[in-house]
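Batch job 17 of 40 flagged for manual review because the log was empty.
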Amino acid sequence: MSPRCRTNRLVSRVLRAFLAVCLLALFPGCTSDTPDPLVVLGPWTGKEGEAFEAALKKLDDGTGRTYTYEGTRSLRETLVSQLEADAPPDVAILNSIGELTEYARRGKLRPLDPKTAERAYEPWAPTLLVDSKRRTYWVPLKVDLKSLVWSKEGTPSDDPEWCLGLASQATSGWPGTDWIEDILLHQAGPERYTEWATGRLDWRDPAVERAWTTWARLLGDRSPASVEKSLTTSYEGLPGTDGQSRGLLASPGFGCTHEHQSAFIRYVYAGDDVRVEPSARFLDGLPEYRDAYEVAGDMAAVFSDDPAAQELVERLSSPAGRERWRAEADPPVRPLFPDMAGLPPTASADPIEQEIDSLLTSRARTLCFDASDAMPPELRDVFYRAVLEFFGDPTAEHLDSLLRQLETVRVQVGENTGGDPSFLPPEDICESRGG
């Protein structure tokens, strides 16, 4: 090689190095071969968030990708703002199939790979018809059993005094809608419940009205001070001297004996002497639908075209991913899964966890997804507000007005979303398990 050639090559190499330094200064990371971390947006904070994040980090088994978890109690607002800024997360975990359905209809979600779609357990992940193609758009990662009543051990159950905290950091009112949904499911049955939850039943139907009036009768007469306390107290109860929530059963000033709440509330009562029972035991005349239970879930959906996002959801929903997550979680926040097949039993499970797991996986004959979480967000939010108003004024005249308002919104939502023949929302949110 001639001296001139060697000189030219050296100049070229120096020039490339110089340009690389300049680019790195202007655009950090642009010259790196390491891909950016995948962003996962989810609802878990505190110990739940820590356990999930720890499991997420352990999923990096030589794949070359890392993951960043963003946990927030204001999940919907955060995701909406990110979508408006055209900066969505790679994966988001939501508990509302009503919201997920709307994102799929608007083309924001990516259909799941077939291997992952096999874990779209019913009733948490119904398929959707989008652009005339029926596909799976989300998969449940963690689930919860509702239709439960909590009480202190030794407390008589023949005349319960109901705890109720309706406030929530994100959206208040949902502990009340949980009550009405559960009552309607047990009184009217899964078929009528499904028609109502999926927008095919008039809110003024006698079965719907009966659920509201039954709730008011169960709660009994309440003083204005008691009503105000329930409207302004969190569903987690009041904090103790250590700043941690004590649960409504242990909160001073309530004097209540029983609480209607989902399985997740067990983290508040960790170490307390409590028991859990099916809510049907507290409703009369329900022999046919006694073994029906309402459930909720946290579903993972892909918002990114990055193939690694699909791979992440597949790994999170796999038996190995579940086992990592469960191993990282403390017993009070240990996740429940829609199908425990392939996972060894948890030796340290306490009696409460064992009871809930038994109901969810074997004793429940019908599982129905949370009705308000299946509704379009506009209708769900009006439902939340209506419950708060009815709790303050449970008169027949006020209920009639509220149900008329809800029916108006149902019709309007149906008119706005029902004109596209290539799209169909979920029509079945219950699963019969026989027996």
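Reviewer: the log was empty due to a logging misconfiguration, but the result itself is present. The chain has two domains: 38-144+296-350, 149-294+369-425. Unflagging and moving on to job 18.
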